[in-house]
Amino acid sequence: MNRRRLRLELRRAREAAGQTQTEAAQALEWSLSKIMRIEAGTVSVSVTDVRALIQQYGVTDPKLVAELEEAARGSKGPSWWAPWSDIMTPGFKSYIGYESAAASIRTYHPVIMPGLLQTEDYAAAVLKPLTDDARARRIIELRTARQERTLEGDAPPPWLFFVVDEAALYRQVGGPQVQRNQLQHLVNMAQRPRVSLQVLPLTAGAHYATQTSFVLLGFHDDEDLLYMEHRGDATVRDDFELIVRYQECFEWLRETAYDTEHSIDLITRVREGIDTT
Hints:
Elements: H1 2-16, H2 21-28, H3 32-40, H4 47-57, H5 62-75, H6 90-101, E1 104-109, H7 120-127, H8 133-152, E2 159-165, H9 166-170, H10 176-190, E3 195-200, E4 214-218, E5 225-228, E6 234-236, H11 240-256, H12 260-272
Parallel strand pairs: 1-2, 2-3
Antiparallel strand pairs: 1-4, 4-5, 5-6
Helix pairs in contact: 1-4, 1-5, 2-3, 4-5, 7-8, 10-12
């Protein structure tokens, strides 16, 4: 979050000063890649570098200067997900940092429940064919921590929009009882404030995301970000044409899916129809 704040504010300051990245780098006798990485939010930034940049850009607002210096100090601290860094891909580390700062999260998965909606037992069943038990437990710990931070964090939680495929309601991941509990969890989640949950009916047919899951992160002061796990945990920020395609796709999914009341009724009927004897 601190790196993102620095990325946005320093880019704005440079553009307000009428300088290109190359001009700023030459004036500071830095490499162009250093400026580019700072504005991409992929590196931490020292207070000394921030002071050099704001002087170069002519930033004089004392409140903004103090906030940027504090963000620079925070950008060097360990991230909350540091205990699980060894089980995370570089792409997912980048994504989860943005997720922590998002104002809205829009998620669709065509096969199973999205990670932020999964119970621990359901997640364990999903992971069982993919990895060993020890690694699966740590992944579930991380997923649970993500859910808690997203739903129960100190800051105002983001708006959450989920479209769940109807097929996922019937697929008994982990067996009948695990699936029943998972479906009840969906009902509970759908009744929370700032959560929208809809079910895409089987009659919807094929669409742009028929074979892929995706997440769109929205921000108050920046463009949307697209995350696609099937592309190697790719976080897409600059391919605006691709992002627009998935924005349009998600709006189509929401328009085609059942509304929340109908979705809850369907989930409840499917749950009650699962035989656990």
